[in-house]
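WARN retry 2 of 3 for item q-0093 after timeout on previous attempt; input resubmitted unchanged.
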Amino acid sequence: MSQSSQEFLAEPVDRTALELGGEVVSKWFGFADAVSDGVYGVDRVGLCIFVNPAAIALLGYETADELLGRNMHQTIHHTRPDGSPFPIEACPLIHTLTSGRSVRLDTELLWRKDGSSFVARYSSYPMTAEDGAILGSAIVFTDCTPDVELDLEPARAIEQLWGSTERRRAEEALRSSEAKFRTLADSISQLAWMTDPEGAIVWYNRRWYDYTGTTPEKMQGWGWQDVHHPDHMERVVAHIAKAFSDGAEWEDTFPLRGKDGEYRWFLSRAMPIHDRPDESHPKGRILGWFGTNTDVTDMREAEDRLSAAKDVAEEANRTKSDFIANMSHELRTPLSAIIGYSEMMQEEIADGADPTELSPDLRKVEANARHLLGLINDVLDLSKIESGKMEVFSETFDTATTLQEVASTVQGLIDKKGNRLVLDLGHDLGVMQSDVTKLRQILLNLLSNAAKFTEGGTITLGATRIVGAGPAQWLSFRVSDTGIGMSAEQLEKLFLRFSQADASTTRKFGGTGLGLSISKAFSVMLGGDIAVESGLGQGSVFTVMVPAVWSPSSSEHHDEDETAADATTNRPGGSADIEKDWVLVIDDDPAQRELMSRFLAREGFGARTAADGRTGIEMARAMKPRAILLDVMMPGMDGWSVLSVLKADPALEAIPVVMITFVSERGLALSLGASEYVLKPVQWDRFKQVMDRFRDAGGTVLVVDDEADSRERMRVVLERDGWTVVEAANGQEALDRVAEGVPQVVVLDVNMPIMDGFAFLPKFREMAGCAETPVIVLTAADLTLADRKRLRGASQVLNKGDTTFGALAKQLRALAETDPSAEGLVS
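OK item q-0093 returned
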């Protein structure tokens, strides 16, 4: 430090402070010596330790010695503008010494040596050591008197200066506040806006313009109405105008149009902005409103979906409750009849009634029992459909014959109300390869419904084979009536499960509401669908469309990997170029079918594909392709089996077949074969028809059943029909009876102790002379596909509840009249 500078430094009272912070003090004094503002420093007790020439001059002193070592508050800051003493504990300068924080003041009054004063703007900064200890403070000040009128008293000068300073500070604070507000308003996710006191919008945030795609010029005032939905305009304007008039908060929900032209829903709120309260405005004068629009479209859609789902669930619960109540009634009705007739017959027998007199009542008991069985079967079918366990069992059958059988079955029901049944069958319906049981049930349900809702009218069962340009063929079945018809509302609920057209229909006509829903499900399972046309008082027309040849893929929607050729093949009316040389590709792998089709198309061939052997054979017969590409390893009917059928058919044997395989030799396993499947309980009339096929002048029937009553009933019927009956209670006992003599026909139960029918059948086929013996399986079990494969050595599989003993005897005769070697296998 220069010698000349030493005269501005004093010896501080706190010498330790100077020793510890001398370097800090020296730096401040060096700064003070270089500036034109007044600068002085005080130690920790407020005594002056340095002062620069500008400060000496501003304070009216001649030398530094007049200030060094003196208490600066008592020297230059001792009196307020009003003349009252300024306590040292209230001095802002001393505050820096105690808090260690800087202080800035714009309107402080400082006193000169001669007793005059001036308004100063000054700042106080703490001087600290390296360890953070406060050594003192440095004060920088300047005279603000030139900013005010010089002839004013100090108090008025301060007031004037304070006023201009406050305005400046207020303006700066306002600009800062506005900048913060705009940043905040542009950052929120809502659309935001502000209005003037009359409600005209004067400002929008950035998100408003981003969403609406508008400009500030277009949106000023009431321009927001341009993006408002017209359907809600009148209501919203009236609502918001009332809120503005009342000075109240406002809330509403309405759609606003985005820049893409689409409307979205917004929850809109506005709050009034009040000035400071006064006597005339206790809450403050309204300066305007601040509002926001929050996008609630997704929330509304979610609420709508939830509400719709709730309505559907509640409707489903009501429907199922009604179904349970209705089903309870439907079950009780035949049960009550069975119980009533049984009690009445017991009393008549006790009274010595002639058995022939009981025959009508017995028939009524049987009819009610079968009706009850049908109801239970419907419930079980629906349960299997909903659980995905219902299977399709495909077999080949004559379409016209099946329709005639269906008509014969339902004729009595149609006659009951004086209706007339008309068959309108096409000339060339041909054969189908599908599930005949499900097709029969679909048609029976439709015909039963027609009979129920028609009285003294005509019911027509029609069928047509549809041959398209491609190889696929479809069957169209129509059931029409002249009954009461249905309304559009009833048609909407027609195929819903557990419901009928309406409650009044249930009360008047009865029924469970399951028949049509099951028919719909079965139609889809068979690869087709069902449709209806109807009008009140105009009758109804149901149309069932199913493919002539069912395949596993035909009951599913086409996957993305199915080719366009597959689509035209599997739908009636698909386009095809008949001038091309067509090649048939039979392969279970969809990727391989796709690759082959693309290769053949590139080579100029037309390609048709089949996903299994049976479908391929039917397509080959229908389209007579130029060549056949045949995969060997396929489930169900493999390539070797398909090849055998193709070469055995005179119409197909000349078609070149190219085998596609990864193996070098034929490894075919011997399998068992089944002709038909029928479930328990047996319909005996049908059973008799099956047994008649095996009938000749005399013969032995081996009846294998663990139920003695069942064996006894069959013995009575069969012996009356000319058969010799041998009984066995289980499979092992039956093998012993066969060893004594080979029967002409075997009637076999499946579920038995010791050895069941599954175990008996292959052992029986291995015995001498038994390979071609017809075996009719009687079972009450709901056979799975695996069970049916195990029973492929049977000639017939009959349901004990569906087949009468008379039908059993008739079937035996028919089988006996047929050459066993000609027996086909139907799966």
